[in-house]
Design a protein that fits this description.
Layout: H1 26-36, H2 43-48, H3 52-58, H4 69-82, H5 85-94, H6 100-109, H7 113-125, H8 132-137, H9 140-153, H10 162-173, H11 194-200
Length: about 200
């Protein structure tokens, strides 16, 4: 296990000495410390030899306590940044991202290759398209790949007329969900529905 040798020196004049950790939130550091110093310590082993060294010899990082998704994400982040390989492996093994999108983002950020392909597949298979908020955090290549595959595996026939497409674009730019009116669609043969054709020719339907 790598020591925190790259941490900054304690601030001069501070008592007790204070080490400032850049870009580390207290809740994330607490989660990381919970791995090194768990709340539960086997009493029998300490009764025999009350030694902190003995505790670390018996400490099993594979038998981790129950932790939330947020706590495990914090542990994975700090373990990766500080080079704690065994703790990083534990976090990856225990972390279960609840969505394919979160699994893809974390997999890319922390180089967890076994998460990436299944996450991309699920994003291609799900019924909902990639949202604007999701797209902002995705790699550009991943975004293009997902949208290209989704278009390929779904119907490629045009089902909405030009006016409806324009309304759809405007709705998505406003962050709204858009559904085509029943009379503004195109049938599978590429022809406008009767109601739309009548409206386009000025005939009352």
């Amino acid at each position: 296990m790598t020591r925190l040798s790259r941490l900054p020196a304690p601030q001069e004049g501070a008592f007790p000495p204070v080490i400032s950790l850049e870009n580390v939130k207290s809740k994330d550091f607490d989660a990381f410390l919970s791995v090194l110093y768990p709340l539960y310590v086997p009493a029998l082993k300490f009764a025999i030899v009350p030694s902190l060294t003995l505790f670390f010899l018996f400490r099993n990082f594979n038998a981790s306590e129950e932790r939330s998704f947020e706590e495990l994400s914090s542990i994975l982040d700090l373990a990766t940044r500080w080079g704690f390989t065994s703790i990083r492996d534990m976090a990856i093994r225990c972390l279960k991202p609840p969505t394919a999108y979160q699994r893809l983002i974390l997999g890319r950020k922390y180089a967890v290759e076994e998460w990436i392909l299944p996450a991309l597949q699920e994003l291609c298979e799900r019924s909902e398209p990639v949202t604007l908020d999701e797209a902002r955090l995705m790699d550009f290549e991943d975004l293009v790949l997902v949208e290209s595959v989704r278009e390929t595996i779904r119907s490629r026939s045009l089902r909405v007329l030009s006016a409806g497409i324009r309304e759809c674009i405007e709705a998505y730019r406003r962050g709204e969900t858009w559904r085509p009116p029943a009379n503004d669609t195109v049938n599978p043969f590429g022809q406008a529905t009767t109601a739309m054709s009548a409206r386009a020719t000025g005939v009352n339907g």
